[in-house]
Amino acid sequence: MTSIVETIAQSIKRADRTLFNENYVKQAEAVVEGLRRAGYEVVPLRPPEPLVEYAVENIPFGRLRPSDLIRTLYTTMVSNCRRFTG
Fold it and tell me: Where are the domains of the chain?
């Protein structure tokens, strides 16, 4: 799987029609960092299996309202995604 930084870098490179080569990875890293500062995280559409296993082991058991369970699951998976995708 291609990292989000590489994906953005390739997109910037394809969009740039100048004669000079730029550091697209540096630009892509800046975009991803800006997204994170704004409260976003870029994650794959399908979670990697190790992340699913991590979430299963770290989601609290017991009686949770469905909305609380979904919020906890979402937060756990998104906030830990980088640990399992690079």
Answer: 4-37, 49-85
